[in-house]
């Protein structure tokens, strides 16, 4: 019986010299750690999917819809050994959040993801943590906090609506107690050729025409922001920071990302998860 298990294990062993295995791995990295069975097969093929599953490289996400998979420790450790030791794996985000990245993957384009031209959410966090420790960031952050504090206090003095007052008070509290924690990293950052970025704008516009009316405006705003990023970028490669928000996203969550964007001038597009 043990001999049969060893044979089965060898048969289903994945080698990351296989391009399809690397493509699947990079898509898991980009897509917040979750993918559907259909997506995995679409990126690779049925044989690769069943080898990944039988070999213990992927497993179904508990308490999620049937057919949604995440990577296992075996998959992540082997990828780091054989492909990229610096890869930062999140593990498995929420299904809603991953759905936003599923939509984005089609807009970013398979070439950029396959070539690893992106920072995953964990890589973004590490980079932002380093930036936040610099004197330049702290000086700019303090200046921004002082300016925003004055603006919020003036707005609070004239506000009459209870909901508006509560939101302004919360924003003011976040500012005065932030201690550099009120500046959040984006979910991902992609590096696109100019033509790829322009194609992404068009794909976002097309999607906004077909998606649910409740999120149509957000997608249109995101496409306009991406256009702006393209216009002001003079380098050949265009860096685009992306933040995906779900139904659980609160106003203060977006505020902390916008604060980071303002201080660093690292322009970010904000997209819904559906």
In short:
The protein is α+β, with helices and mostly antiparallel strands and 274 residues long.
Topology:
Elements: H1 2-11, H2 19-30, E1 35-36, H3 37-43, H4 46-54, E2 58-60, E3 68-71, H5 73-82, H6 95-108, H7 110-114, E4 118-119, H8 121-132, H9 135-158, H10 162-176, E5 188-193, H11 194-210, H12 213-232, E6 237-245, H13 251-264, E7 268-272
Helix pairs in contact: 3-4, 9-10, 9-13, 11-12
Highlighted features:
274 residues, alpha+beta, Arc Repressor Mutant, subunit A, 3 domains, four-stranded mixed beta sheet, three-stranded antiparallel beta sheet, 11% strand, disordered N terminus
Notes on the protein architecture:
- The protein has 274 residues and is an alpha+beta fold.
- It folds into three domains: 2-93, Arc Repressor Mutant, subunit A; 121-127 and 185-272, no CATH class; 134-176.
- It has helices at 2-11, 19-30, 37-43, 46-54, 73-82, 95-108, 110-114, 121-132, 135-158, 162-176, 194-210, 213-232, 251-264; strands at residues 35-36, 58-60, 68-71, 118-119, 188-193, 237-245, 268-272.
- A four-stranded mixed β-sheet has the order 4-5-6-7, sandwiched between helices. The chain has a three-stranded antiparallel β-sheet with strand order 1-3-2, sandwiched between helices.
- The chain starts with a helix and ends with a strand.
- The relative contact order is 0.11.
